[in-house]
Specification:
Four Helix Bundle (Hemerythrin (Met), subunit A), 2 strands, elongated
Amino acid sequence: MTTLRRADAGASPRPSGTIETAADAPVEVVDVAMLLSLEAAQAEGGPDIVVELIDLYFEDTPRRVAAVRRALEEEDVSALRWAAHGLRGSSASLGARRLAALCDELEGLPGEELTRGGAALLTRLVHEFDCVRHFFADERSRRLDPVASQKNPDHPIH
């Protein structure tokens, strides 16, 4: 089983699970503490639970994003709230808090603002999902290839 750890302050110029914004301020993409708590539930000798959850997230999330897009195009407030709520829950459960917060904004969007505010939020949501997807793809690869993981001791989580 691969073990996660928080990066030491001097090990990386950015905190674990972060990206750099245009203003060079680190922005947390995934809350590593959430992955640590999921890893703690790992059964000894069993398949890597974090990899399995990432795989489910990769399978499910594109459909949920498409449902949000469709609801916005159709200006269907009820469908938007349902889709955003589901995406928020699955994202939050894996520590993708910024993505979950964007879903929360969409979920609370008043009907009269769907056209104007919804498109901008969808653009941000798609961008954030891309960041989360990259983070999870890297984490998944690292967990499935422990040799590659050992080659990069400065990786933010081990």
